[in-house]
Amino acid sequence: MSLSKKLLLVLIPSLVVLVGLLCVLLFLPSGGNNNVYLEKISSAKKMVEQGNYQDAIVFYENAIEEDEKQEEPYIGLADIYVTHLNDINSALNILNRGYDATQSTRIKELLDYYKNLGLDGGASAEKPMTTEQIGFNTTALNIFAANNYAKYSESYTVTGENLSGGVYTVKYQQYDAVFEYANSPDSEVINPDTNKPYDYARPTAIRLNTLDYLISGTDAGVTIDRFKSLGAENIAVSAYNEPLGTYLLTFDFDSLHITLGCDENGTVKGKDSYNVLVPKPGDAQTKKVKVEGDIIDVTTGQNVSTADVSFHKGKNSPNGEIAAQVQAPGGKYSTELDTGDYTVEISADGYNTETFDLYVSDAGPDNDKFSISPTIGGNEIRIVLEWGAAPSDLDSHLDGTCDGTSVRIDFMNRSCSKNGQPIADLDVDDQDGFGPETITIHKTNGSYEYKVHRYFGSGTLAASGATVKIYQGSGSPTIVNVPTDLSGDWWEVCSIENGEVKLK
Questions:
Q1: Whole-prediction pTM value?
Q2: CA 374 to chain centre
């Protein structure tokens, strides 16, 4: 054997080891000690899970000191400031700082996301809401106008009730409000035999603990002209009310008479402003009510081109007597129904046939939009998240592996594929309440975890009214409701193992 070959036999193993070490170094954080950095990140996450956000901030900042080029601690800090401390300015500051240090695409997308919410990422301060962004929470107002005592009792969890001085008050877990019932010379709503309201009675007053649930933009101020443009009628400003310490703005909106604290010009400013909502009194007799609304495609958030809509009498009664059948050209339906409970059946070419519960009072229906899913392949799974007006932003998250590929789907990672073949994608990311927000899994031969995160807005995940619909094949979806006793900002919904869905 020649000397050169011997030398090569000695050098080659050394070169392999050297190359291996260089590869390891390339994948270590770019500065500091890798073990210390990972330890700080792990400690920060544990503190968040325990609700110790101040210590979590310290650990994330320590991680940045170890390596300022990593995106994870900046994103973790921003999440703490937004979702737990309601401090938008600090979140924007840390994200701008992180982008300067890392040039991370994910951080840039998060900054753009906040800009879409009306926040100024460059100046690190809140922008006033534009006039177009100020509006009523019409879904909540429809519920307040339409629901009677029986419907509230059936649909929501009572957390407190009391009868005092002839006034019955009740609180529900799903609403940050007090509902009052009281007899008047014109209407008897308290049943003397039970000391509770009659089933048909509507609250004689609803008092919200925060105006955020009624209308957006009160921090900046909502003017009389804006209320008029939103459809408020019979608007008036009263003289200064000494006992309440405020002027009062009164107006009618749909079937509600609303009184709000305001300034002398009628501008409502501040989410803690005085408020009283008075629904139109309930009617013990049935009557025809106009029912109209939209049929939505869950993958686009837009109206379907056409659909057939059947209204069956009774709740959860898809085979019940048909009260009305109509077509919905352009995804819009309209009919008249007696007051009561119905099961709505919706069918359209290329879509799953689906059913929904609907309650119609003499003030109108409690829902006017229904979302349906296009049919999917036999090996696909579609997961659709829907919720109420608050919180304004819930997010779907899918994590797992498929064919050796790590899968992460959320609002910053909208799709995942391998060799040009899609594995999963987020079709719709809804940021202003209600949904739908839709993830479609194209390759089900993997291992996945699906969960929901409360990302932004007032209100809790438990009280959001969130539902998750899981579609497989052409059958009816599996429907999962958010637990009303859920604590925290995460809801672990299900796991998926090789196409088998297992609910948590």
A1: 0.58
A2: 22
